[in-house]
Design a protein that fits this description.
Layout lengths: L1 H41 L5 H18 L2 H17 L3 H18 L2 H15 L4 H18 L2 H17 L3 H17 L3 H17 L3 H17 L3 H17 L3 H18 L2 H17 L3 H153 L5 H27 L10
InterPro entries: HisK_dim/P_sf, TPR-like_helical_dom_sf, TPR_rpt
Keywords: Coiled coil, Membrane, TPR repeat, Transmembrane, Transmembrane helix
Protein name: Tetratricopeptide repeat protein
């Protein structure tokens, strides 16, 4: 018995150890997924292709270990990679996939991040729709006090108002984002805030402030190898120098910026550089070079126009498709809820039916028992009633007999009274008369003595007869017949 218990203890310890090892391995795998997702996200500004490859690797690992949070985040980052490659329809597909996964996990912070990403897709198409997504992100971020997400939301809201040419509101949001990015020491956010504020000052013709901020942003971008940021910052600096007729500085930043734009392979920013070169050469009055850039722009305009139109149409179609799918999903969910409610209601009705049937059976049994008890009681009542009837009948007979006896006795008493008045009164009167004669000495007592004895005997005989008649039920009269 002891050996058996020892063997069970060893098996239990081995199972516990295996469970712990599996738990450690799963934790390690999920940590690896998170690390890859983080690294791929950090590459979005420098190498979006690498962002997509790394995020897909993380997604594959997350699927293998069933790490739903990591899977949702990797899909979001893949969408970000496609966004920086200007493939907005592909980006939207991954964003929507991630959004559904975060909703399933009830992760509102994940939903907020995706809403922020979708807002960036709409920023050049529909300002109001874009703001709607950004404000939703800001609300959730403030609820959880996620300062990096709050700062990013302010930055994107500022970008939207910049495109709406509401520069004062845009600047206020940029300043809020800059304060938070500096507080949490986010170099990418700090650089973007510097760049965006510089653009605002450029748009409002405050060239000195704009140049100072943009040069600082340029330095930080190079420090952190933010190639895409360098290309866009240099474009703004070039525009400032062209406006100030500093053509050599403009040319320097245009050449440097074009190199970074080609490095990140951003067709949109490359187009902007060609157009800015055209502006530079035109202002220099170098019309031949300006014409060359203009021809190149004309070709790119046609290509980019068609590409942008196609991309916008795809984005809108995809959005409409997603909205339709969402409506269908909501309808399906509602149907499932209705079916669930119906199932619950059916279950409740079934339970109530069984309960009612149980009550009916119980009530029926109780009713039968009560009826049986009532029948027993009723039989007892009938029996008692019959006994009472018999007693009443006997009482009636007794009463009749007694009544008859009383009638006879009354009759006898009446006869006795009459008899006394007639039969006994005579001898008594005779006896009384004799006594008077004796008292008056009219006769000798010895002479009347037989007469007296005769009267007394007569009276005694009558009394005996009356007693006999009263006590003899067979006699109805005092006088003998």
């Amino acid at each position: 018995m002891k050996r058996f218990l020892f063997f069970l203890l060893i098996i239990n310890n081995l199972n516990t150890y295996a469970f712990q090892i599996n738990g450690i391995k799963e934790n390690e795998d999920s940590s690896a997924v998170n690390k890859i997702n983080k690294a791929s996200y950090q590459n979005r500004l420098t190498d979006p292709d690498q962002t997509i490859l790394m995020a897909k690797r993380a997604n594959k690992m997350a699927l293998a270990i069933k790490f739903k949070e990591g899977e949702a985040e990797s899909n979001r980052i893949i969408g970000i990679g496609y966004y920086y490659l200007n493939q907005r329809d592909s980006a939207l597909n991954y964003y929507l996939l991630a959004l559904n996964q975060f909703k399933f996990l009830k992760d509102d912070l994940g939903e907020a991040k995706v809403a922020n990403n979708i807002g960036n897709l709409w920023i050049d198409i529909d300002y109001d729709k874009s703001l709607e997504y950004f404000k939703k992100t800001l609300q959730i971020a403030q609820k959880h006090n996620k300062k990096d997400l709050i700062a990013g939301s302010y930055l994107n809201i500022g970008n939207t108002f910049l495109r709406k040419k509401n520069y004062s509101v845009a600047l206020k949001n940029y300043e809020k984002s800059s304060e938070l990015f500096n507080e949490i020491n986010n170099p990418i956010g700090i650089t973007q805030s510097l760049q965006n504020r510089g653009v605002i000052y450029f748009k409002t013709n405050q060239f000195d402030k704009a140049e100072k901020l943009l040069l600082e942003a340029n330095r930080k971008s190079k420090e952190h190898e933010l190639n895409s940021a360098v290309s866009s910052i240099n474009l703004s600096l070039s525009a400032i120098y062209i406006a100030e007729n500093k053509f050599e500085d403009a040319s320097k930043f245009l050449n440097e910026g074009m190199a970074f734009a080609k490095l990140v392979n951003d067709s949109k920013i490359i187009y902007d550089y060609i157009y800015t070169n055209y502006q530079l050469e035109y202002k220099r009055k170098n019309y031949e070079k300006a014409l060359g850039y203009l021809k190149e722009i004309n070709v790119l305009d046609s290509v980019n126009y068609n590409k942008n139109i196609t991309s916008n149409i795809n984005l809108i179609q995809q959005t409409l498709k997603q909205q339709q799918q969402q409506k269908e999903n909501e309808l399906t969910i509602q149907q499932q809820k209705n079916a669930k409610k119906l199932s619950i209601a059916t279950g409740i009705v079934t339970i109530l039916s069984f309960f009612v049937i149980f009550l009916l059976i119980k009530t029926n049994k109780k009713s039968k028992k009560s009826n049986l008890e009532l029948k027993t009681l009723n039989d007892e009542v009938i029996r008692q009633k019959n006994n009472v009837d018999r007693i009443n009948h006997r009482l009636e007979e007794l009463i009749a007999e007694r009544t008859k006896d009383l009638i006879i006795k009354n009759q006898k008493l009446s006869e006795y009274s009459s008899h006394l008045s007639h039969q006994i009164r005579g001898p008594v009167a005779t006896l009384k008369g004799l006594m008077l004669l004796v008292e008056d000495d009219m006769v000798d007592s010895n002479e009347i003595s037989p007469q007296i004895i005769k009267c007394v005997n007569k009276i005694d005989e009558q009394i005996m007869d009356i007693n006999e008649a009263l006590n003899d039920p067979t006699r109805y009269h005092l006088n003998r017949k």
